[in-house]
Amino acid sequence: MTRSTFARQLVKPKILVARAIFPDVIERLAQYFDVERNDADTVYSSDELRARLADKAGAITTASERIDASVLAGAPHLRVVANMAVGYNNFDIEAMTAAGVMATNTPDVLNETTADFGWALLMATARRVTESERWLREGHWDKWAYDGFLGADVHGSTLGVVGMGRIGQAIARRAMGFNMRVVYHNRSRLDAATEAACQASYVDKDTLLRTADHVILVLPYSNATHHTIGAAELAVMKSTATLVNLARGGIVDDAALAVALANRQIAAAGLDVFEGEPKVHPDLLKVPNAVLTPHIASASVATRRGMASLAADNLIAALGFGAAAGKPPCLLNPAARQS
Fold this sequence. Notes:
By secondary structure, the protein is an alpha/beta fold. The protein is 37% helix and 14% strand.
């Protein structure tokens, strides 16, 4: 045993787990670290987060915690922040790299579960499931009617996928069972073999919006994708079409969408993510043809456990422990490790 290894065992590095996670994952982390945990699951303000990180070598965060230059300035010992999410638009990667702070995420472990939920949201939206359930619970149902809650067929229709990464591909593969035509738009076209495996055809964004009966958004958020769907895009969609946002808030202009739904410019929308969440645009709460869920696409027991475990793997490795010491499996900014 080297002297440095012995010293590390005597004085454990301090870490912050910024939101509540599974207790057994905390126990695993405690084998290596002095853990400050947030069992109350409060969302820290930027100032509070900065204060709590002041003496920390690492942290596990969620999308709720913004890691930017201001926070980093108050955390001189910080070496890694492990996001328990596949998305990382809460990270200022440039600032983290400049500060020598490794950034990690949890890709792949949630692909299939998120794709499952995308279909749940699509089906609920197309077939007016939540709208009709609310009506039933309110005591209105007294007879069957031929025109009661008529929705849109999913089978045999055209599915448009915007963002054809791993989750988008998993959604497209599921469409085969519904005998759907799948079109997609992406930053770059997939190779022929992947297109064939998904039975999907590449089209430009305008063509997708004009032709798809159901549009599902699965692209990462960035400045370039902000308001990918706004008033202009909604205007070219079919009046019978549905829109599902499974990706990130801000990809859709929620205010414009609320107007389009109220005016029946499109038939319905299903949203798992929102601009400024957990706040939801008040006009979206007023329209009956919106299915709204609280960012739960990855919320199965197995998947959330997988995300927490992978975040812990990243943190443990980044701080020099375990079989992958020094090589976190999901490093987003390799240059930070070299700094």
